[in-house]
Amino acid sequence: MEFNYSVEIIPAGAIGGAIAGAPALIVDTTGSDEMAKLLGALHSVSNKKIYYTRPGINGLAKTLEIAQESGIKCIILGGKELPALSVAIPAESYTASLVSPGSDTGDSGNLLSHILSDKSSSEFSHIAYQTYRYRATDMKTLKERQFEELRLGELRKDISLAEPLLRNKEHIFIDLRSVRYSDFPDNDTHSPNGMYAEEICQIARYAGMGQNVKRIYLFGYPSKCKADSPSSQLVAEVLWHVAEALAINKKEDPGATGKDDHFLRKIVSMGEHGQDIIFITSTSTGRWWMEVPELKTNNNQYIPCAYSDYVTACSGEVPIRWLFFFQKINPN
């Protein structure tokens, strides 16, 4: 089968050393061939081969295990429901992000509740939620555990705010029902509000550019979708954005020893009685970090941030994100 996009379909049993070093493996558990065809009709920019396998839902756990042993990052395309939490959530300590409307969207609500109560979840961010779909008890727990959140209204003002919340996460879950009904007609919530199609694609790109990402789950995609539907076309484009980002992703660590000429340090003075805030930006990727001191050890932690945090500091205000992490790193 000839594809415009450089996709190679392989059996699940062929995963291993033969594809080690590949940017990504798409694991399709929907049981349909249509998505591979839709993705193959798109044009690659990176010119790197992406592998595609269809193990079925029952073979997912073994497929992910083999991929992990080979160091291969996975994009898991599920159907309407998220795979069992025993498969999707690791037993050991992990970091995660969830893109979903809130607490009450079926399995993504169960996932949210699980992560909020799971002692193994060391860092978590919830992105694009809608306040009226969020249980007050869940929001209370999220804040008590000092997890991060970005509601839909704030995301719409500046979508780049989502990138720092995804940058260091290992497991990223994207509920396609985060997209409003008019842009994703097979959204079974029929919600008139939600992300635009362009926004979910940008979020997908941010996810693929993550520095520590291991697995990206896409779910909320009903099996009844027809191949020529706007919903199926959008899912193919979301997959394209993730795969292309993974293919060109560049590992960066501003705290690594040794000189790296593509990092620029910018010191912002917060006034006579304020503490200087140091920002670091990459001239290669445009990413931003801020130094947050750990008072007990006299060391600095490098926290992902957005350009807008730097602009806020330049205006004489301490960025909320800096304060959030300063308090988290230096509890009373």
Polypeptide structure, described:
The chain is α/β, with parallel strands linked by helices and 332 residues long. It folds into two domains: 7-248, 3-Layer(aba) Sandwich (Arginase, Chain A); 263-329, no CATH class. Helices cover 31% and strands 21% of the residues. It has eleven helices and 13 strands. The mean pLDDT is 91.
Structural key phrases:
4-stranded antiparallel β-sheet, alpha/beta, Arginase, Chain A, 332 residues, 9-stranded parallel β-sheet
Nearest-angstrom radius of gyration? 20 Å
Q: What CATH first level of the largest domain would be assigned?
A: Alpha Beta
Strand coverage percent: 15-25%
Number of domains: 2
**Taking strands numbered 1, 2, ... along the chain, how are they ordered across the largest sheet?**
1-3-2-4-9-8-5-6-7
CATH architecture of the largest domain: 3-Layer(aba) Sandwich
How would you name the CATH homologous superfamily of the largest domain? Ureohydrolase domain
Characterize the largest beta sheet: strand count, sense, and whether it forms a barrel.
Answer: 9 strands, parallel
Q: What proportion of the residues is helical, as a percent range?
A: 25-40%
Number of helices: 11
Structural class: alpha/beta
Give the uncertain stretches in residue-range form: none
H-E order? EEHEHEHEHEHEHHEHEHEEEEHH
Estimate the mean pLDDT confidence.
91
